[in-house]
Amino acid sequence: MRTKPTYKQKLFVQEYIKNKGNGTQSALKVYNTTDDNTARMIASDNLTKPIVQQELKTLLQRKELQLDRFTNKLSDIVGSEPSKGYSGSDIVEAVKTGLKLHGVLQDRKTVTSYNLNADLEKLSTYDLIERHKKLTKDTEAILHDDNE
User: Fold this and answer.
1) Closest CA to 47 of 135, 116, 107
2) What is the structure's pLDDT at 147?
């Protein structure tokens, strides 16, 4: 098992922070792909790897990216005028990005993925029908949530 991230994984994490937590854009920049779907899959795969998560955590421990810096800044914004040259929304957006990178602020939309690599030929007709019903129901629920 690998104990250090690869060069590309390190670059991916750096780009992930630069891109405000946008894994797809980070993968497009670092990996040899121009396809958004491929980049999204690469990003998702990277972000589930403990070695990549640890690299992200390590970078987020740097003084300028520590969580308390963002929460303190948020408190300061509530009671003060925006910094010269930046609007209040610029500062709030930067703080939101920091909180998101630390996992404190979650995106409203969550993505559910399924492993469809099961050997379907080995399933009985009943099991196939039940699986189809469940996947259809889950898909309709996701589509229904997106339309709200």
Assistant:
1) 107
2) 55
